[in-house]
Amino acid sequence: MDPNHPLLRLARELAAPTTPGEPSSRPRLSIVRTGDLLHVDFYGSPFEEAFETVCTALCDDEVAPVLASVSLRCPDQGMNGTCSFGLEALVNRRSSFPALQSLSLQQNTPETHNRIVIGEYEEGGVLGTLLKAAPALESLVAPSAPDRSFFELPNQALRYLNVDSGYDTQNFIAHLAESSSFPKLEHLEFGEYNETYMDDFASHCTPKDDYRRLFTSPAFGSVRFFRWRNPVFSREEIAELRALCPQKGLQFQVVRCSAESI
User: Fold this and answer.
1) For the chain, how many helices (H) and strands (E)?
2) CA-to-CA distance for 8 and 133, rounded, in angstroms?
């Protein structure tokens, strides 16, 4: 790669030593070359120019074909309580990422003040577009659930899928139950809609029948590990659903976490 390529220039700029009192939210970019492939890790606010520069550079004809992994992380900053990854720069050029095996976007933790999502309230089909552009993708971590377009292509390579609902489940569980897209899926994590400050938040959560369909569907047959974050059902209801899963040796884990400001 040309030493003056925008991606490498930005990495050098962000590698400058920090000064006393400088905020820890300052953007940072790491690029590791393994053979002919690149592994990129970016930390910084999605609202700042550095983020847009990185996303644009990843689509460059010299970079996109040799990307093996991309990790995008952000500080706990936002507008109106939301920290939004705008990924249009990654998909608008319709670039292809034939070597990309891992894409990770930072998810929320209980102590996060600003809800991390993709796009505004829905991710707008960005994850489906990226999946189509990366046929070798095996691992995806995302803070928002993808829409139906994510399930349009059969026989995708994904083995590890970890998504949170964000501000809208987009019927993720129902779509997955009906899908033949991921025959190699082994590790599945799903974070249920968790805007518990809303009086009617449970009405926005995934219906129990959708989970019934998923756990008895061929789409779930290859799964060996399932982590379920913040289900709205009782322990007895979860046990009933767990009993529907036919796999022997399935690791089934429930995690409940929340944060409350007083």
Assistant:
1) 7, 11
2) 23
